[in-house]
Amino acid sequence: MNSHSVLNRTLLTIAGLVLLGGGLLVLTGGLDLYRRWGLAPPAGWPLTSPHDTLLPAHDRTRWTGEDWWWPTVIAALAILIALALWWLLAQLRHRHPGRLPVGNPPVDGVGLYDGALSDALAADTARLPGVNEARTRLIGHARQPHATFDVTLDPDARPRDVHHALESTVQRARQSTGWEHLPARATLRVASHRPHRAE
User: Of the four listed, 6, 47, 65, 155, which is most buried by Cβ atoms within 10 Å?
Assistant: First the structure.
């Protein structure tokens, strides 16, 4: 798993936990479950009955008369919006590259779509010894695409041999497109199989 996926999953997990906790807090107070189930919430716990609010009026208006309050609120919201936009742009940077230039230097009017090259790489990989299934996709910018391989191996395959064969596959793709570099990342899995009985 790359760092981009780890960051996305971490952010989604944190956001999900915050929303889940807030939802349970509102649901418990709104349905008056503390009284119905005979539970005693901690002192100062918000939303303990259907008539409570998350923040009392006194707390909501405590600092509104202070000079620093509104600039602080606006700055905090601006930071949140900037972080959200940064995250959105980070997602767009990893989109499919689309039409790829061919040749070095690129030949005018000649291009190759990322889907066609992905299919060719997947078909080439699927023919390798020990490979049960292969999927390939290209990500990144059209001028600097990255290939990602998702390869399922046969139970008796040797991952080292498949890895060396994948290097040859990427090398052939570079030669056929005229590119000097094609960074690649491979994820190798073993196909599920029934255990063999030893007699």
Answer: 47
DSSP the chain: --HHHHHHHHHHHHHHHHHHHHHHHHHHHHTTHHHHHT--PPTT-S--STT--SS-HHHHTSSTTSTTHHHHHHHHHHHHHHHHHHHHHHHHHTS---EEE-TTTTPTT-EEEHHHHHHHHHHHHHTSTTEEEEEEEEEEETTEEEEEEEEEEPTT--HHHHHHHHHHHHHHHHHHHT-S---EEEEEEE---PPPPP-
| Highest CATH level, class, for 99-190 | alpha beta
Which is more confident, 8 or 95?
8
Q: What is the pLDDT of residue 63?
A: 85
Reported as a single tens digit per residue, the pLDDT across 54-91 is: 777 777 788 888 899 889 999 999 999 999 898 888 77
- What is the percent of the chain with per-residue pLDDT over 70, rounded to a whole number? 92
